Each structure stands twice: as structure tokens, then as C-alpha cells.
Amino acid sequence: MDKQPATFSISDLAREFGITPRTIRFYEDQGLISPRREGRNRIFTRRDRTRLKLALRGKRLGFSLAEIGYLIGMYDTARDKNAQLTELLNGLGQRKAALVQQREDIEAVLQEVSAFELQCQELLSAREARKASDAAGSSTANDAV
Questions:
Q1: Range of the domain at 25
Q2: What is the pLDDT of residue 52?
Q3: Closest to 44 measured CA to CA, from 22, 59, 68, 28
Q4: Whether this model's pTM surpasses 0.70
Q5: How far is CA 129 from CA 10, 55, 111, 132, 137, in A?
Q6: Residue 47's domain is classified under what CATH number?
């Protein structure tokens, strides 16, 4: 049975989550984690580790810092896990809807870009054909002289 240590250093957490100590200090500055200090060293508890993990997960999912703070606050205060999960599901649903809308917007823009590319290619082809036709016509005129 693998047992986690009770405390972690900033380098332990940075290594575990594949982030820089600066990132951890940023989340501390934002009030999302609050390690205790022993001299100049930060000492992180399991609670801090979990809060950092939630913050990183929220970031990956595209939540703002305020939303991440709210979710972490729920983790700390929620006695009713069903209410906490329902709130999280609501947040995820809203984020998913926003991402679906962004994808639809991107697809629409891509279609416009493709149509414009096709238009440009057709114009270029027409100009090249006209240029070739003009060159052939002037070459024939020069041969007649």
C-alpha cells in the first residue's frame, strides 16, 4: 500500500504535476493554495496538494481563476457532496456549451476561408490563362510580320 507523505515541498509538487515552482507560487498569490512557512521554505499539506490538483484540472478545462477559486471553495466547505457535484456538473455543462459554440464559430470561419481561397485560386487561374492567351496572340502577330 503506497502511502503519501503528510507534507510536500514546492519542488515535490512541481515535479509531481510537471509544472514550475513559479506556477505554484502564482496559485498561492491568487489565494488558491496557502502553504505554511518554515523560514523561507513553503510546506504544503495534502489539502494544499488536492487544491493545487483541482486548480490545474480547472485550468485544463478552461475555467477562469475566479471559477477555479469557487470550485476549490466548494471542496473546502461542502458537507453535501451531492450539491458539490451538481454545482460542478453545472459549471462543466456551461463550459462545454461555450466550447461547442467556439467550435461552431471556428468551423464557420474555416468554411469562409476555404471559399475565399477557392475564389482566389479561380481568379489566379483565369489571370494566368488570359496571360498565356495574350502571349500566344502576340507571338502569332510577331510571326506574321
A1: 1-77
A2: 96
A3: 28
A4: no
A5: 67, 59, 27, 5, 12
A6: 1.10.1660.10
